């Protein structure tokens, strides 16, 4: 396996699925930290925005000064990986919600695009560049309705909606790669960092 021991990756730890991401980062040999204050961002090469409830995480981000701090972090070219609610936080446009949070990525995102909690499911997903499908767990997942910039690279789609996409240093994923033992999407992010 490649050596990622030089990388310091944070997981925003205000609400949501934090520990599973920390574990995957450590399994790949990088250093993982749960981030609770903006000052902790300076030491990082990359940041994961976990799944959870985007309205709650967004509120807490505003309260603790994370909106500007993470926007600055992105401007420095550092990697940001948003999963599920994290994808919603990254989007510049939301299809069914007036509240844009970080507004960093040129995507239009629909919240709960695959239905409610009871409609959660797992599927074998074809991902660009992977030689076998990825076991993707969708939990009240959003999707990318459309990209608003040619620099957005769709990497996986389901039912005609983009569910994994990259734009420079930003990676957005509609499902929960941290809930499966498959480390390939986290590795893809570490490569970007
Ligand atoms: N539906 C949630 C939201 O809109 C996201 C769900 C998730 O992160 N698993 O924030």
TrEMBL record:
<keyword id="KW-0315">Glutamine amidotransferase</keyword>
<feature type="binding site">
    <location>
        <begin position="139"/>
        <end position="140"/>
    </location>
    <ligand>
        <name>L-glutamine</name>
    </ligand>
</feature>
<comment type="pathway">
    <text>Cofactor biosynthesis; pyridoxal 5'-phosphate biosynthesis.</text>
</comment>
<dbReference type="GO" id="GO:0004359">
    <property type="term" value="F:glutaminase activity"/>
</dbReference>
<dbReference type="InterPro" id="IPR021196">
    <property type="entry name" value="PdxT/SNO_CS"/>
</dbReference>
<protein>
    <recommendedName>
        <fullName>Pyridoxal 5'-phosphate synthase subunit PdxT</fullName>
        <ecNumber>4.3.3.6</ecNumber>
        <ecNumber>3.5.1.2</ecNumber>
    </recommendedName>
</protein>
<feature type="active site" description="Charge relay system">
    <location>
        <position position="178"/>
    </location>
</feature>
<comment type="function">
    <text>Catalyzes the hydrolysis of glutamine to glutamate and ammonia as part of the biosynthesis of pyridoxal 5'-phosphate. The resulting ammonia molecule is channeled to the active site of PdxS.</text>
</comment>
<feature type="active site" description="Charge relay system">
    <location>
        <position position="176"/>
    </location>
</feature>
<keyword id="KW-0378">Hydrolase</keyword>
<dbReference type="InterPro" id="IPR029062">
    <property type="entry name" value="Class_I_gatase-like"/>
</dbReference>
<keyword id="KW-0663">Pyridoxal phosphate</keyword>
<feature type="active site" description="Nucleophile">
    <location>
        <position position="84"/>
    </location>
</feature>
<feature type="binding site">
    <location>
        <position position="111"/>
    </location>
    <ligand>
        <name>L-glutamine</name>
    </ligand>
</feature>
<feature type="binding site">
    <location>
        <begin position="52"/>
        <end position="54"/>
    </location>
    <ligand>
        <name>L-glutamine</name>
    </ligand>
</feature>
<dbReference type="Pfam" id="PF01174">
    <property type="entry name" value="SNO"/>
</dbReference>
<dbReference type="InterPro" id="IPR002161">
    <property type="entry name" value="PdxT/SNO"/>
</dbReference>
<dbReference type="GO" id="GO:0036381">
    <property type="term" value="F:pyridoxal 5'-phosphate synthase (glutamine hydrolysing) activity"/>
</dbReference>
<comment type="subunit">
    <text>In the presence of PdxS, forms a dodecamer of heterodimers. Only shows activity in the heterodimer.</text>
</comment>
<keyword id="KW-0456">Lyase</keyword>
<comment type="similarity">
    <text>Belongs to the glutaminase PdxT/SNO family.</text>
</comment>
């Amino acid at each position: 396996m490649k050596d990622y021991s030089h990388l310091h990756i944070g997981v925003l730890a205000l609400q949501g699925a934090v520990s599973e991401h920390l574990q995957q980062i450590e399994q790949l040999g990088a250093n993982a930290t749960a981030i609770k204050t903006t000052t902790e961002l300076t030491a990082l090469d990359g940041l994961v925005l976990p799944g959870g409830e985007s309205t709650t995480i967004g509120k807490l981000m505003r309260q603790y000064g994370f909106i500007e701090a993470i926007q600055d972090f992105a401007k420095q070219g550092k990697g940001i990986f948003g999963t599920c609610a994290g994808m919603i936080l990254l989007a510049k446009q939301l299809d069914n919600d007036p509240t844009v949070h970080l507004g960093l990525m040129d995507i239009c995102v629909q919240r709960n695009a695959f239905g409610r909690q009871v409609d959660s499911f797992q599927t074998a997903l074809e991902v660009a560049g992977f030689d076998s499908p990825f076991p993707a767990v969708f939990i009240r997942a959003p999707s990318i309705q459309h990209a608003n910039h040619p620099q957005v690279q769709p990497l996986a789609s389901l039912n005609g909606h983009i569910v994994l996409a990259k734009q420079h240093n930003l990676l957005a994923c509609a499902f929960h790669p941290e809930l499966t033992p498959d480390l390939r999407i986290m590795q893809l992010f570490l490569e970007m960092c």
